[in-house]
From TrEMBL:
<keyword id="KW-0694">RNA-binding</keyword>
<keyword id="KW-0489">Methyltransferase</keyword>
<dbReference type="GO" id="GO:0030422">
    <property type="term" value="P:siRNA processing"/>
</dbReference>
<keyword id="KW-0479">Metal-binding</keyword>
<dbReference type="GO" id="GO:0003723">
    <property type="term" value="F:RNA binding"/>
</dbReference>
<keyword id="KW-0808">Transferase</keyword>
<dbReference type="GO" id="GO:0001510">
    <property type="term" value="P:RNA methylation"/>
</dbReference>
<dbReference type="GO" id="GO:0046872">
    <property type="term" value="F:metal ion binding"/>
</dbReference>
<keyword id="KW-0943">RNA-mediated gene silencing</keyword>
<dbReference type="InterPro" id="IPR029063">
    <property type="entry name" value="SAM-dependent_MTases_sf"/>
</dbReference>
<keyword id="KW-0460">Magnesium</keyword>
<dbReference type="GO" id="GO:0090486">
    <property type="term" value="F:small RNA 2'-O-methyltransferase activity"/>
</dbReference>
<dbReference type="GO" id="GO:0005737">
    <property type="term" value="C:cytoplasm"/>
</dbReference>
<dbReference type="InterPro" id="IPR026610">
    <property type="entry name" value="Hen1"/>
</dbReference>
<dbReference type="GO" id="GO:0005634">
    <property type="term" value="C:nucleus"/>
</dbReference>
<keyword id="KW-0949">S-adenosyl-L-methionine</keyword>
<protein>
    <recommendedName>
        <fullName>Small RNA 2'-O-methyltransferase</fullName>
        <ecNumber>2.1.1.386</ecNumber>
    </recommendedName>
</protein>
């Protein structure tokens, strides 16, 4: 019995850590705040998975984006709580996750609107939104094919306001040498 107690005492103690709010929610809140602060309108989500961030960004803003005063060059725009996204790109390597991402970002069809309860109906969209979902890794973005680069980054890298990558797990597989016996 003493040996069991001694073994338990020698085990390292593991702290039970709980995040409130959940860590994923804290990360998402930070990303959304950054997009608001920088007034992002075009976003690439690397490792978009099932499209949880993309689906949030697809939600229509409740206001029309403010415009600077035309008489004052470089006029400051009043900050707004809304994020006015016009172009989204999602990239991931997992086919199953991408199928869900496509469903999560698809607009509700007009003929289905009447079947939804009022509280589930989407708000009207004031601005057009272009969503593109691609399968592949980062090598797709950095490929030699000029057409792919144009599709991702437009004519210049600066065409995108934000590139986001959250909740991405990088898996590294070790290839062990095979053991042979003689």
């Amino acid at each position: 019995m003493d040996q069991i107690l001694a073994a338990e005492e020698s085990q390292p103690k593991v702290a039970n850590v709980t995040f409130n709010p959940a860590l994923w929610l804290q990360r998402r809140t930070w990303v959304l705040n950054q997009l608001r602060e920088h007034r992002a309108t075009s976003v690439i989500d690397l490792g978009c998975g099932e499209g949880s961030l993309l689906s949030v960004l697809c939600q229509p803003a409740s206001t029309i984006p403010p415009k600077p005063d035309d008489t004052t060059p470089n006029a400051e725009i009043e900050p707004t709580l809304d994020i006015h996204i016009s172009h989204l790109v999602g990239l991931d390597v997992d086919d199953q996750s991408l199928k869900i991402a496509v469903e999560e970002t698809a607009p509700v069809l007009e003929d289905r609107l009447n079947d939804l309860p009022l509280w589930e109906r989407p708000r009207p969209r004031w601005l057009d939104l272009d969503v593109q979902i691609y399968r592949g890794g980062l090598e797709v973005l950095n490929g030699d094919d000029g057409e792919n680069k144009k599709r991702w980054f437009g004519s210049k890298t600066g065409d995108w306001d934000a590139i986001v990558s959250t909740e991405v797990c990088v898996w590294r597989f070790l290839l062990l040498p095979s053991c042979t016996t003689s």
